[in-house]
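Hi team,

Filling in the usual template for the complex we talked about on Friday. All components are listed, including any nucleic acid strands or ligand strings, so the model treats them as one assembly.

SUBMITTER: L.P.
PURPOSE: interface mapping
COMPONENTS: two
RESIDUES: 880
SEQUENCES:
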Amino acid sequence: MSTIRITGIRTIDLRFPTSRFHIGSDAVNKDPDYSAAYCILETDSNFEGHGLTFTLGRGTDLCVQAVEYLSRFVVGRTLESIQLDMASFCRDLIGDTQFRWLGPEKGVVHLAAAALINAVWDLWAKVEGKPVWLLLADMTPEQIVSLIDFRYIDDALSPAEALEILKRNEPTKADRVAKLRANGLQAYTTSAGWFGFSDEKIKRLCQEGLRDGWTHFKLKVGGDAADDLRRGKLVRAEIGWENKLMVDANQKWGVLEAIERTTALKELDPWWMEEPTSPDDILGHARIRKESGVRIATGEHCHSKVMFKQLLQAGSIDVCQIDSCRVAGVNENLAIILMAAKFGVPVCPHAGGVGLCEYVQHLSAFDYLWASATLENRVVEYVDHLHEHFLTPVRIERGRYMLPEAAGYSIEIKPESLAEFAFPNGQAWLEEAKAAETRA
Amino acid sequence: MSTIRITGIRTIDLRFPTSRFHIGSDAVNKDPDYSAAYCILETDSNFEGHGLTFTLGRGTDLCVQAVEYLSRFVVGRTLESIQLDMASFCRDLIGDTQFRWLGPEKGVVHLAAAALINAVWDLWAKVEGKPVWLLLADMTPEQIVSLIDFRYIDDALSPAEALEILKRNEPTKADRVAKLRANGLQAYTTSAGWFGFSDEKIKRLCQEGLRDGWTHFKLKVGGDAADDLRRGKLVRAEIGWENKLMVDANQKWGVLEAIERTTALKELDPWWMEEPTSPDDILGHARIRKESGVRIATGEHCHSKVMFKQLLQAGSIDVCQIDSCRVAGVNENLAIILMAAKFGVPVCPHAGGVGLCEYVQHLSAFDYLWASATLENRVVEYVDHLHEHFLTPVRIERGRYMLPEAAGYSIEIKPESLAEFAFPNGQAWLEEAKAAETRA
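RESULT (copied from the run log):
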């Protein structure tokens, strides 16, 4: 326990002008400027806690403002007082009696809660001198259970059931820690298959990916049906049938259309179909899964543990795509990972954007060490951009995440990047504005 | 069609210090300051369109900011260009490629969309010289279908099915318009049963309610189990067993606890149990309904038509409690009302707060005229406060909403109230600040 006190917060509206290069383009998100509401918890020591919530550009200011509001539940507290009952801390943060009307537990206010809760984890891990995944690895089962707010999920996973899972995995954990350190986590690449990329670029990126040791490739679909199939065949021609191909429609279709379109893509032998319809449509996903016979993945827009609970209960998904900052940070994700383990559904985190890869490696490690105790059918998304801005960027070797040993949550961005990409007055944005003026 | 052009927008962060009087207090929302992100669409004519989204105080500024951002989809357009394809207009508003990440279709950004879309309806109705309910009543079935974005719901309700419902009801509609004008809509009162009220106050308000002709009373529950039952018996002693009593837990419980607590309240013969658990728990509500055998109501926190679709598909609810501004305004509500009609579930709108009663009378009229064509088991919530701030407040007679004939959506607030309760610089808030200073 630490007597360090959190004394203040700094926030930054951080935006990268990625839309200029069609990076991150898909059937729905056509022009993302990968962005973040970034926060720094200041303390009465030399330690700082960094956290961010990922956004797509416009509206990041709303998340920043919500982070500033919610910081009243953080600033002034000792780290120890949070550590002693972190479930209650999280519940206070998401339960503000007036603010919760704006959610509850969804959208802007929940994204903001994620930034703050993750920043507390970054601080905690730095104070302990461990990466977050190891901090979690070294806890007792009881400590881990105490991190979780079981409200609204105890019909699917009770504290006793969670404890049982954790205790069952404890004796073999040290062995998995050693394996994890030696071999890392299997990754897959989304960098080759963005919507806005030309055929030539896709082919080249597939070839480069194979050379670099990648075995799992994701392609964005949801355009014209014939063109989706054509682009899929293009990728298959490059990567062969022994490698895995996943397709991602980014919520483009209604349920009936999704069944039709997913079925039409079966000849590509997709390992999964991702986000075929509205992220809120639990029953729709279950129907698409049943009627298409294709493995279904979703989660990056799934806004809370209550929604994940139902995706699992309804048999909607074969792949549980947790997101590190759409739900309320580490704690809510631990609940989701343990539920997925109980239902036997593999966790394959959503990543990319800015900072999501850095975050999720810690969560997948928790899944392997404490929850599922297996790496089978588990892959972590990887997208190769913006890592250069991080103090301790992810380390990828032959298509695998090699786990960090540096203390913290790996999310700290270099001060010069924070300055350059601050919106709207950082140098990068001043130059964007000038360029726009010249074009006009 | 109207060539009037929308030329600008004014927004107001409007907050009423209702928490001082325990008005609106329940098991979860303990201290609401009824508030609104309020907007005024200015035009190149004498007409203005007023709209608001309801909030509970803190965070209203986020909604105001989101309204200002989304106004780019409204300002500069002619009313005609919106009227010609309103479904596309709504879809643009909720589909901004960067902003939608903050939802999608939920929370702050969706609340903001509601304010704007409702303001367009207010403008449209004022230009036509009709109240919104009559504007809708005078449309053709085809026009009404064109107002609805069927994306993500066509597996439950196709445009053809919607058209069929509307056409089936068209021949008898004039008769219902006459009945509606003569008799209004059955209301129920929540004013008697707030959480923070003393026994004496509850008793007095029940007696007053009976005198004023009320037959349906709602009580807030979700406190100590024995106390809930005691307060319920208190109300029953006043209103007898021939009047209806509804209970409302405001999301207090998990699924298992909700089953237990709902069952324990059966001896009160509740007409419905409202919000027994998380508003996102579709499968949880279905289970509570099945295992308790009590009629289940929810919807005021249900954030989109996709969620309502599933509540209907899963057999989760006996009562569909639409909210006029949590989903994206009139248009999304028409979709929900038509789905409810198809599934045979009565629509009993959530109201209260500020402006919600003024709004929902129009939507219930649409339900009766075009969708369900019946008033059976349909009641509209009524709470008796803040109506004095409206230019054309709701008119309640012997427990019934008497429909407005004034043009517009009944939501326009008096200029002097807008000035007095603007946060933080209106006179009411300057006085609050001074009073707080004196107390300190």
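MY TAKE: The CA atoms of residues 133 and 362 of chain B lie 5 Å apart. Chain B has 17 helices and twelve strands.

Thanks, L.
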